[in-house]
Amino acid sequence: MSTWSLKLLYDGACPFCRREVDFLRRRNHRLLLRFEDISDPQFDPAKYGLTKEEVNRVLHGVRPDGAVVRGMAAIREAYRAVGLGWITAPTAWPGIRWIADRAYEAFARNRIRWGRLVGRCESGTCVLGPSSEP
Prior knowledge:
By secondary structure, the chain is an alpha+beta fold. The chain has one domain (6-118). The chain has helices spanning 15-26, 52-57, 72-81, 85-88, 96-109, 111-115, and strands spanning 6-10, 33-37, 60-62, 68-70. Strands 2-1-3-4 form a 4-stranded mixed sheet, with helices on one face.
């Protein structure tokens, strides 16, 4: 039996994505989340039955049984794993879910462009600290 509940396949080239992953890592006290950077040259989406185009389109989460969740569903699961499910719970409510899912998809399509508004580190890229994964 696995001790983790979700592995997030995130875009480390995206400033917003890095900030969100850093936020989740700081709250990952029970180590239920794992993280894998899709911008790493060694990353192979095929091991999850995905293509490079798919993983670049939206956030993906992989469960221990290999099931893949996408977009807002992955975000909701990640927040639940760190004990903050109440924050994203309204995005699953009838009527709101459709809007939240479309809003996330619009964000994901433009994340790199909008990420430039977040700013950059002195080197032109930012690096997250070491992972707290086992």
